């Protein structure tokens, strides 16, 4: 499997993917910042979760998932461990996870990206697909966050500004 | 530049990226389908565009951008050329562009992904960054579409179902 994948055309290197992901994480951080404190924890449309809950989901995926991949342990997904009460707490944890993601991502080998792993004991896919899913899930929920901000009459950050 | 990039760890091959993108396009197609005809063209939150307009934007990027990259022409972005009046027209064009994207994407070489190109005469970035932007932009606007559907009381398609 690994051989087949690596003899084909490379689209991007792992360094480029990490930079891409961290660029998205910078933008998501700006979206968290753009919410007024109260609305971050309470505002919702159509019965969906407030943006603080979505931010906690993202924080509970990135770093913990990479740790699981690197250490090959399949602990269940857990978003109950972190219960922030303020925007500041969320941003602080966000920045801590930036370092965790950089560290663990760089420990994944080229071969490993192509190997199947049962992430969180539940999502059995090639590692690269799981990682792309983390990024997509973040962009998806952030699109929801942009809509919340617009509904609140707040101008969201520019989508293309990442660093 | 090319050499530096290709001696580093591969994250994904071009075939894997294309499959990933087309999986997202399948999901976006389901989101278009999920809108009632009238709301597809008219429903909006916070002054943002209705989902039909967003779908036209996506249709005006993917295929035309890849043609520009392959043929190295820098014609300006144009979303005025396609003015659908029905959901059916949008879905038909969507499916035609699926083939255009497959054809042109496969004509881009590994070296080319790393080369800078002035897309639409305006966005001067490495080709791989422009292509990731197309996917991200789609996931972003689709997240907005999910929020519209929830606000309309309509259950959106599963985020993880792509094929």
Automatic annotation (TrEMBL), chains A, B:
Single GO MF descriptor: metal ion binding
Stored InterPro entries: DinB, DinB/YfiT-like
UniProt-listed Gene3D superfamilies: dinb family like domain
Domain of life: Bacteria
Binding site for a divalent metal cation: 141
The keyword Aminoacyl-tRNA synthetase is assigned to this record: no
Keywords attached to this entry: Metal-binding
Pfam families: DinB (PF05163)
KW Metal-binding (keyword) present: yes
SUPFAM superfamilies tied to this protein: DinB/YfiT-like putative metalloenzymes
Family: Belongs to the DinB family.
Protein's name according to its UniProt entry: Uncharacterized damage-inducible protein DinB (Forms a four-helix bundle)
């Amino acid at each position: 499997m690994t051989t087949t994948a690596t003899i084909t055309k490379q689209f991007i290197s792992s360094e480029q993917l990490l930079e891409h992901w961290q660029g998205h994480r910078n933008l998501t951080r700006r979206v968290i910042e753009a919410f007024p404190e109260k609305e971050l924890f309470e505002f919702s449309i159509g019965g969906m979760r407030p943006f603080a809950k979505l931010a906690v989901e993202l924080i509970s995926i990135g770093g913990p998932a990479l740790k699981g991949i690197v250490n090959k342990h399949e602990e269940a997904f857990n978003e109950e461990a972190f219960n922030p009460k303020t925007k500041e707490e969320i941003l602080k944890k966000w920045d801590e996870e930036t370092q965790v993601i950089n560290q663990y991502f760089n420990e994944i080998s080229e071969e490993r990206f192509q190997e199947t792993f049962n992430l969180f004991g539940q999502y059995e896919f090639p590692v690269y697909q799981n990682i792309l899913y983390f990024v997509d899930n973040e962009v998806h929920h952030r699109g929801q966050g942009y809509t919340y901000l617009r509904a609140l009459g707040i101008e969201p950050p520019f989508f293309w500004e990442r660093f």
